[in-house]
């Protein structure tokens, strides 16, 4: 679908790396590989916050016969209220690394796939006007960066849920050799965040906490990953593979997987051969039905990465395991015209990755990452869902 208010609002050119958490830690030039996949919420003053993932990459990862990765070297202690440690460069001999992808390299893993990154991601709060079309302020002083070994390779893909007036919860993906985990932050105002620890263990990505309680309980969508899946029986409408699951919690910190399956890839929908959560579900009305609006991504196989699109489902208000309605066609598709002015920075195509939604009465404002490069904002009239 095409929408008149659909544009990139934050690009790599906006980011000032002299104010990066990595600045001054090591002697190597970096650049902004992408400023994308923004978590989104409404602040108490009515402005909208985008929590932008900044992927800061080495300009020359390969030098002196070695390939380098950025890593936070610290044990999680705080000194004077600040994380104790520093960012360092690890050098791997080229003969041990597969460097065909400039964003990462593979190293020997004893039978497992083992990867290192040539970039490190941190989170930058950007305050926007209520229509999310103009920047009000960039809060470099409130940036969130790795602070312990659980996130030594980066903090990625924030998803923010305003569960109550003074209760914001933000999930992030923390990357380290220890585990690829979901970490949680809390805030009373959407700008000042407190680290709450790990809430989901290895490779359970795209955790989206519902923006409100259901019968007194917190609910969330999750998406476990793995290298092995068991087959559905012949003739099943579903295909094996990653799916969107549900979990509940009494306090937003301790989560229990729900027994019922949730949104699963279907045999008749090649565009959902791989899938995962997008924006935290919000309680709203779609086509005369009230429920939890879930925006999620489906991936159609193509070349290495595939084509990422945004789809929607409406979940029952009292029982989110029940799907009341869903769109058969994508709500958002990758838009090459938006990134054409940034052609010299493109390293990936065919990707729109939705990470936030705000209900503004007659329309939804949707935040996405476009091509893992920039932040895209789309105004979608509510009658486009139906």
UniProtKB/TrEMBL annotation:
Protein name: GH43/DUF377 family glycosyl hydrolase
Alphabetically ordered keywords of this record: Glycosyltransferase, Hydrolase, Transferase
InterPro entries (alphabetical): Glyco_hydro_beta-prop_sf, Mannoside_phosphorylase
Pfam families cross-referenced by the UniProt entry: Glyco_hydro_130
Family: Belongs to the glycosyl hydrolase 130 family.
Gene3D superfamilies the UniProt entry points to: Glycosyl hydrolase domain, family 43
GO molecular function: hydrolase activity
Coiled coil: none
Keyword Signal attached: no
Alphabetized SUPFAM superfamilies for the sequence: Arabinanase/levansucrase/invertase
């Amino acid at each position: 679908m095409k929408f008149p208010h659909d544009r990139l609002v934050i690009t790599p050119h906006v980011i000032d790396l002299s104010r990066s958490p990595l600045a001054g830690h090591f002697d190597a030039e970096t650049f902004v590989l992408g400023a994308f996949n923004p978590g989104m919420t409404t602040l108490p003053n009515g402005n909208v916050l985008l929590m932008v993932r900044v992927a800061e990459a080495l300009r020359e990862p390969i030098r002196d016969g070695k390939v380098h990765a950025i890593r936070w070297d610290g044990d999680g202690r705080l000194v004077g209220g600040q994380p104790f440690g520093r960012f360092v460069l690890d050098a791997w001999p080229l003969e041990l690394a597969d460097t065909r992808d400039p964003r990462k390299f593979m190293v020997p893993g004893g039978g497992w796939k083992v990867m290192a990154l040539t970039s490190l991601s941190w989170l930058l709060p950007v305050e926007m006007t209520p229509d999310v079309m103009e920047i009000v302020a960039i809060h470099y002083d409130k940036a969130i960066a790795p602070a312990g070994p659980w996130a030594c390779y980066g903090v990625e893909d924030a998803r923010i849920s305003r569960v109550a007036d003074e209760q914001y919860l933000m999930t992030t993906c923390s990357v380290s050799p220890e585990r690829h985990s979901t970490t949680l932050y809390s805030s009373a105002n959407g700008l000042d965040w407190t680290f709450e620890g790990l809430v989901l263990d290895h490779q359970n990505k795209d955790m989206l906490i519902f923006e409100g309680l259901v019968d007194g309980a917190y609910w969330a969508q999750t998406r476990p990953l793995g290298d092995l899946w068991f087959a559905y029986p012949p003739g099943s409408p579903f295909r094996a593979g990653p799916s969107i699951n549900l979990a509940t919690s009494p306090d937003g910190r301790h989560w229990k997987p729900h027994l019922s399956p949730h949104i699963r890839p279907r045999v008749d929908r090649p565009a959902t051969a791989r899938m995962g959560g997008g924006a935290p579900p919000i309680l709203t009305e779609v086509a005369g039905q009230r429920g939890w609006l879930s925006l999620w991504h489906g991936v159609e196989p193509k070349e290495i990465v595939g084509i990422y699109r945004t789809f929607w489902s409406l979940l029952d208000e009292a029982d989110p395991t029940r799907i009341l309605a869903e769109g058969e066609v994508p709500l958002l598709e990758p838009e090459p015209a938006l990134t054409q002015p940034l052609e010299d920075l493109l390293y990936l195509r065919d990707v729109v990755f939705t990470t936030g939604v705000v209900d503004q009465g007659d329309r939804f404002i949707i935040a996405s990452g476009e091509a893992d490069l920039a932040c895209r904002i789309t105004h979608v009239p509510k009658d486009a869902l139906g």
